[in-house]
Amino acid sequence: MQLGIVGLGRMGANMRERIRRAGHEVTGYDQNPDVSDVASLADLVGSLRAGERVVWIMVPAGEITRAVVTELAELLAPGDLVIEGGNSHYVDDAKHAEILAARQVGYLDVGVSGGVWGLENGYGLMAGGAAEDVERAMPIFDALRPEGPRGEGFVHAGGVGAGHYAKMVHNGIEYGLMQAYAEGFELLGASGVVTDVPGTLKAWSRGTVVRSWLLDLLVEALEEDPQLAKIDDWVEDSGEGRWTVDEAIDHAVPLPVISAALFARFASRQVDSPAMKAVAALRHQFGGHATKPANPAP
Predict the structure, then answer these.
(1) Where are the domains of the chain?
(2) Which run of H or of E encompasses 275?
(3) 248 half-sphere exposure, CB direction, 13 A CA radius
(4) Average pLDDT estimate for 149-154
(5) CA 199 to chain centre
(6) Which CATH superfamily is domain 2-158 in?
(7) What angle do CA 182, 187, 190 make, to 5 degrees?
(8) Where are the beta strands (DSSP E) in 189-258?
(9) At what angle do helices 274-287 and 162-191 cross, to 10 degrees?
(10) In this predicted structure, what is the pLDDT of residue 290?
């Protein structure tokens, strides 16, 4: 297949490379000319064969995504397809689909998980939209997802908006898992009973019911900096946790763990917290998210 990708940041550039390795032709556009294959969005569209153009958007959610969708609607033709793979709020997908449908252009929203490790390990994909559009893009999804059964790494979650809704809940769960590991890390260190905290966490990474990729990443972070002394405990939230809690309130679904994990991130901006240092380290390990340097001692 041919594919255009808009946005060549941490994930977009790696996705371009993984799809190319699978034998597909990919043209990428980014405002940074050092990484872009073409000079403009119009050039990107022009590089694709008319009648079978597929363009994947990987830019920050919100107004930037809306602007790209709007410009693509003017550049694409009936029968083309847009895939929105950023972390957009699912309610925005209906509007994006409407803008493109006015030009008879298809739309899929796809939640993408895998962070900076996706190039080698593959990406978990959650698609929303029409079945025929999903089938058309399946060679690209197969190139991006991890090796193994398609259902273990890819799902057509439902109609427009379902992909980003699934990713929203996925990220809410991620908040809770990271917070639990981080709190355990802090308690082990505070107890005075356990003298090898990094080793204890590493020992949990095989044969225990709490083993996971996130635990492996925390172990890696501690091997680099056993006390996490080099980073500040400030932890950002990128939106999905808030949206997940908002949805829980709307549907009267209790989410005490995810809610507490979100509020802990707010607390990280007010007090020094070893647990929040662990969360900051995890976000850097799996997603390449920036950390703040630790404040120097007075």
Answers:
(1) 2-158, 167-287
(2) helix 274-287
(3) 17
(4) 97
(5) 29
(6) NAD(P)-binding Rossmann-like Domain (3.40.50.720)
(7) 125
(8) none
(9) 140
(10) 85
Q: What is the pTM of this model?
A: 0.90
Q: Catalytic site residue 292? A: no
Q: Which of 84, 167, 183, 240 is catalytic?
A: 167
Residue 186 among the catalytic residues = no
How far is it, in rounded angstroms, from Cα 288 to Cα 124?
A: 17
As a whole-number percent, the residues of the chain with pLDDT over 70 amount to: 98
**What is the SS3 string spanning 110-177?**
EEEECHHHHHHHCCEEEEECCHHHHHHHHHHHHHHCCCCCCCCCEEEEECCCHHHHHHHHHHHHHHHH
Measure CA 170 to chain center.
10
Give the Å distances, CA to CA, from 80 to 99, 137, 142, 244.
Answer: 13, 11, 20, 32
Instruction: Write the CA distances from 123 to 71, 154, 179, integer angstroms.
Output: 27, 9, 23
For 245-274, what is the mean pLDDT? 91
- For domain 167-287, which CATH number applies: 1.10.1040.10, 3.40.50.620, 3.30.70.20, 3.20.20.70? 1.10.1040.10
Please state the rounded mean pLDDT for residues 2-23.
Answer: 97
Q: Which of 174, 183, 240, 277 is catalytic?
A: 174
Tokens of 110: 């796809």
